Amino acid sequence: MIDHHVRVHPSADRLPREEQLAWKLAAVATGTQDAAGLDPQAAAMAVNRVVDNASVAVASLLRRPVAVARGQALAHRATPGAAVFGAAPGVRVSPEWAAWANGTAVRELDFHDTFLAADYSHPGDNIPPLLAVAQHTGRTGAELLRGIVAAYEIHVALVRAICLHEHRIDHVAHLSAATACGLGALLGLDTATTYQAVQQAVHTTTATRQSRKGEISSWKAFAPAFAGKAAIEAVDRAMRGEGSPSPVYEGEDGFLARMLDGPDAAYTVGLPEPGEARRAILDTYTKEHSAEYQAQAVIDLARRLRERTGPTEKIRSIVLHTSHHTHQVIGSGSGDPQKYDPTASRETLDHSVPYIFAVALEDGVWHHERSYAPERAQRPGTVELWQRISTVEDPEWTRRYHDPDPERRAFGGRAVVTLVDGTVIEDELAVADAHPAGARPFDRPGYVAKFRTLAEGIVAAGDQDRFLAAAEGLAELPPEGLDALFPAVDTEAVAAFDAGLPKGLF
Q1: pLDDT, averaged across the chain
Q2: For residue 218, is pLDDT > 90?
Q3: Residue 161: how many CB atoms within 10 A of its CB?
Q4: How far is CA 155 from CA 179, 310, 394, in A?
Q5: Which residues, listed in sequence order, are joined to residue 429 by a DSSP beta bridge?
Q6: What range(s) does the MmgE/PrpD C-terminal domain occupy (predicted)?
Q7: Which CATH code is given to the segment(s) 24-283?
Q8: Can you tell me the distance from the alpha carbon of 431 to that of 295, in angstroms, rounded to the nearest whole number?
């Protein structure tokens, strides 16, 4: 790896583009090896994430935000175009709108992959725009793999190095840069074109974290889809020869100076050397449970504690000792009263670790729909228990959260349960069971099982088999074979659901 030191420069410096972060990101992406030269483990993990994305996309087809995005996309038919999850076979829309619809479907349940470091990310959000452009431009499965691995490499590098959250900037600013780089690798663009696309994408997708604060709305699902759509449009403009705000990161009125640490901002971004294997995707991990990633270990911990705590009405209080990020983002440290509101939206509840711990402790299971149902959230006993759960930041858990060694990094916490009779029960869990360092790390059979579980009743068994065969053979798929990455569903049922929604402009 090469450490690149990035700081703010006044305009008078005329910082050469080859010394700018956007150029260095683009150079890594455009230097990504062809699929035959990809690291085999990285390529296999990219296949896993294609399966993972399809799993959560088909499970969300009849959810309102997904239907709204799909309806908007279907109003933008195009040839050759790209496919949309839930649309009739043969229907094609403009690639940026396919990315919008499919990205929303993938993100809606908060149930796909994650990478946590200096900032947060869901690197799987790169896949819908890459797949859409691959279909539209007639690329092969091998070229798609190349783009996915490149996008993950850039996304992970930015998330490791540059914290957006502390400045209340939404994490999709890193996503859009990664997607633009992935598209550069997919399409075989030169570094100069990709560089301009990265800058346009970052400039147009910098937004505040209010989308994940207070009463969280459906925009949480739309935000990464918007970033993917914007990245496609940025690449299109760059390919047509258009330039960008430059240097977008280092400029005196640029991203670092005005959005992050100010004129004295300085960061170190580690990127692979030329010819070095792109393996960053292997540092990312998926979810076994449909909830914010910092809640994954908490759900497993709550299930483990059930037998020791006994009836929940005998619990006086539960305090979760955890990291700064968990406490501030999904815990009581956020200061959001909505995190204790039984009538809160699903999007808010999946970012409330007190709620999640209460339901997991009571039920011993976690379900992507039933655990969030209004009748479940408003159950009187649950509400009473929920109000007795709080979080505190523990410096040791914060340190472990940021440990540079992936083998020691921890995203869980310690639960201190105090019963009415004064008995104190404690337990802790560093990482979720499905984490690579957990009790049951997800492997290919785990991804397949997740797909079959979420596709049950939506995708027929034979169509499940056909999808899995196509995904597992991604490196050998011809351009027309990418259609098989969209599992067949009951499109009439989907259309009937869509017909019940209000119409917009398109």
Answers
A1: 95
A2: no
A3: 20
A4: 8, 43, 28
A5: 413
A6: 289-473
A7: 1.10.4100.10
A8: 10
- At 378 the pLDDT is 97
For 378-440, give the DSSP string: T-HHHHHHHHTEEEEE-HHHHHHHT-SSTTT----EEEEEEETTS-EEEEEESS-TTSTTSSS
DSSP single-letter state for residue 7: E
DSSP one-letter code for 251: B
Q: Are 269 and 161 in contact (CB under 8 A)?
A: yes
pLDDT value at residue 215: 74
Residue with tokens 């600013």: 173
- Token output for 345: 């939206």
**Mean pLDDT across 414-442:** 96
Q: How many H-runs (helices) and E-runs (strands) does the chain carry?
A: 19, 8
Summarize the confidence of residues 476-498 as an average pLDDT: 97
Q: Label residue 35 by pLDDT band (50, 70, 90).
A: low
Write down the architecture of domain 293-429 according to CATH: 2-Layer Sandwich (3.30)
User: What are residue 389's phi and psi, to 5 degrees?
Assistant: -110, 130
DSSP-derived 3-state class of residue 79: strand
| Residue-range domain boundaries for the chain | 24-283, 293-429
Q: Which two tokens stand for residue 7?
A: 């700081």
Per residue in 88-120, pLDDT (tens digit) is: 999 999 999 999 999 999 999 999 999 999 998
CA 179 – CA 224 distance, rounded (Å): 10
Backbone angles phi, psi at 140, to 5 degrees: -85, 170
Instruction: Give the residue from 96, 104, 84 showing the smallest Cα distance to 347.
Output: 104
Rounded Cα distance between 74 and 65, Å, is 14
